Amino acid sequence: MARAYGSNAQLLLKRETTYGQQAAGNYYKMPFTSSNLGSEQGLIEDPVLGFGRDPAQPLQDVINVDGDIVVPVDPRYLGLWLTGVFGDPVSGDVAATGYIDFSVNPTAGDTITINGVEFTFVEDTPGANEIDIQGTVIQTVDEIVSELNTSVDTDVDDATYSRPTGTQRLLITHDTVGDAGNSFTLAASAATVSADTLEGGGTQHLFESGKDTLPSYSIEVGMSQIPAYFMQLGTVLNSIAFDFQRSGAATATINAVAQGEERNNASQGGTPQELTFKRISQFQGEIRSGGVPIGNLVAGSVVYSNNLERIETIRADGKIDGADPTVASLTGSITVRFADTTFIDAAFAGTPVDVEFSYNLAPNLVLKLTAHEVYLPKPKTPVSGVGGVEASFDFQGAKNTSAGNMLEVRLINDLDGTDYQ
To answer: How many domains does the chain have?
Structure first.
């Protein structure tokens, strides 16, 4: 007698044209770690009296179809899930970028190296590949911008240089969109570089929070040994959650609400399509605030939810009429070793901060979640024994009027975006 094993299970997904109507054609074969998405139908105790102490047979209740799917963080497949959570992305080729941050004014002899070309800071009349130190950091960065933008060196003039308003940052943007600029190198002797090379050149898929309508999907979870194939129809994605840790495999947890479930003896997914699968590890993750890595970081998490409302109407089949997004929410936590009061000061003042969660598998395979306006509570800082003291901040996000949204998700890969439509 055959028995079902998770090692032989498969999860297929395809976008529906009409809510609740099974999608036709070839589905995507999705990598997953676990799934409890399925239908439940409870029993109601019959309250009838008059037939003795033994109860009458129970009544069937309504059918609820929901559950969680845990998936690996992958720079291609994850876009399908992100489309369900946030709606259709805006896709297009973007240029590689990077930056050099100057916390203090350079001193004579300090250097920056742009795509292999070294520039030295001096305090007197500058010569070739020399930059005159100015009175303030901002003035010096402006001088760098002028020097690099007028350079005739063929290794340097492949990019455009600028200083974002209100910063002490040299921003470098490659002049060619796509992945051509991902090999453009950066270095500095006394400043902070974003990475050894420019990053993010490729096709960007931009997802934004707060869209009014979301797509629905047909999702099939199949066990071929039985055989039994459970098709969840009218599946709308409610939330996505990421946990950032020091080690382990990076995963995302998807919560979904479906209209109904059908069981079949054969797969309904046609000839499944597959994308190139690239697993991401936790050590490739990073959390930043104010554009710089958060120091003494122990762990972090972020959860975006559409807070779906089931439209529970009276129907003979017990199904819902839909699952509508309501006010979205962004929550999470950041746990740090207690080494400074930066976040505590922001919590006391009620001052929002920006937080960026990212995974970088390669310069052209990047996932970046940017929360523009995050509010921090004042946490306790318990002392438990002789070990290090930690502080955990359970934050909440809000819409940033300048950005026009609460959360932006940038997925950069080598797909043109048609798979996400």
So the answer is: 2
